[in-house]
Every structure is written in C-alpha cells, then in structure tokens.
Amino acid sequence: MDCLFCRIAAGEIPVEKLYEDDDAVAFADIHPQAPVHLLLIPRKHIASLAHLSAGDERLIGHLHVVAKKLAEEKALDGFRTVMNTGADGGQTVQHLHIHLLGGRPMHWPPG
Predict the structure, then answer these.
(1) CB 71, CB 35: distance < 8 Å
(2) Active site residue ranges
C-alpha cells in the first residue's frame, strides 16, 4: 500500500510531528485554510469514516481527545474539527483524518 499518511505515521516521510503516541500522529497541514490547521491521523489505516469497523470507537474518540489537547496547547478560543468522507465530501487523501482549524472566526456554512 502506498498511503501518504501511513508513510508519514511510519516516519518514512518527514514532518514536524506536533503530537504522537501509539495510536495517532498530528502535524500541520501543508495547505492551511486557517492560522492553525492541523491534521490528526490514526496510525491504523482506515480509508475514511465510511470504512470504520466495530472496535474503532476508542480510536475515533482518542483522535477527538487529542484534537482538544492540541487546541488547548494552541490557546484557541474556538476551533472547528472536520472529517471529510469520500470524493463528494472533499476527501483527497484516502486515510481517515481530522482537520483541526482555528485562530480566526469560523463562518457557517463552511462551503
């Protein structure tokens, strides 16, 4: 498998990791859409939210707890988390990931 995010998680592609543990890695998005734009990925390859399996609940919850921790570290007053799923949902990398965006007012609808 030649998954960009799996290669980042494995350390094959260097990035400045802002967080990592046995289950997750976080790093800055290379095309930021806000002053703070981080990506949180599971080390386990899951193509998208539509591909979750029984037992992935803990992992998905953990990613959200990490998002909260990073938002606190960045002293964000408010933030948005986004998980795009499938081509029509805007997903461009076929590895589940959460976008953490902040550092400016977020507007609705997002687009």
Answers:
(1) no
(2) 97
Q: Which residues contact 70 (CB under 8 A, 6 or more apart)?
A: 18, 19, 26, 38, 40, 100
Distance separating alpha carbons of residues 65 and 58, to the nearest angstrom: 10
Tell the residue number behind the tokens 């959200």, with chain if given. 64
Structure tokens at 47: 């193509």
pLDDT tens string, the chain, 111 residues long: the values are 689 999 999 999 999 999 999 999 999 999 999 999 999 999 999 999 999 999 999 999 999 999 999 999 999 999 999 999 999 999 999 999 999 999 999 999 875
